[in-house]
Write a structure and sequence with these properties.
The protein is 41% helix and 11% strand. By secondary structure, the chain is α+β, with helices and mostly antiparallel strands. The chain has a four-stranded antiparallel beta sheet, with helices on one face. The protein is elongated and about 65 Å long.
Length: 203
């Protein structure tokens, strides 16, 4: 385990390399990394990130503190996408989870969501925690599906299955950001976003 040394900057620890002379009380001869930390009172849990430079660590910590005050930053949830998907499907079948219009999900819709999750989403993201799945990775996933020959409607349906899970996670405070927002389901920009409804082409 790498040694941590508190820097003179509040909330930032210096992490020296394993062979650094500072470990034996000497002068640092490595290029240390810097771990910034903020405390989430809402989650009662620290949020940490490591950076190669002190300036980057200080900038992130300032931004993180502001985001905590706004309520847009949460400590990472341990809930995986697979666990969230299973809860969503069970709730949709039971009628406790409903559409945005307040209607129960139709059995055919639930089957389509389950198929999309089982065939395409869970093999890739199942064991990953909800908080660690970010929009750039989902966009790459969209492009990989398209390169594999899936048509745009199949990709949209797949993203919609992920979207409903994140919508519920957002409502329950498991995540602060929905990474499915504004995903594009066609390569090189020409076309619709991840919405299940196609946009009309401009003339």
């Amino acid at each position: 385990m790498q040694e941590k040394r508190t820097s003179r900057h509040t909330g930032i620890a210096v992490r020296h390399r394993s062979r650094c002379l500072s470990r034996a009380g000497g002068r640092c001869n490595c290029s240390p990394s810097y771990q910034a930390q903020v405390w989430s009172a809402r989650d009662r849990f620290p949020i940490r990130r490591s950076f190669p430079t002190l300036a980057a660590a200080k900038a992130w910590r300032a931004d993180a503190q502001a985001a905590l005050r706004r309520g847009t930053l949460r400590a990472p949830t341990k809930t995986t996408l697979q666990e969230a998907a299973e809860e969503w499907l069970a709730g949709a079948r039971a009628g406790s989870i409903r559409t945005r219009g307040g209607e129960p999900y139709k059995p055919s819709a639930i089957r389509n969501y389950e198929q999309s999750l089982r065939l395409r989403v869970l093999p890739v993201f199942g064991p990953v925690s909800l908080a660690k799945i970010e929009r750039p990775r989902l966009q790459r996933f969209v492009e990989e599906l398209l390169r594999d020959g899936h048509d745009a409607s199949t990709v949209r349906n797949t993203i919609t299955a992920i979207r409903v899970i994140y919508r519920r996670a957002l409502d329950h405070g498991l995540v602060a950001v929905n990474p499915t927002h504004a995903l594009r389901c066609r390569l090189r920009g020409a076309g619709a976003s991840g919405s299940p409804h196609r946009r009309r082409r401009r003339r």
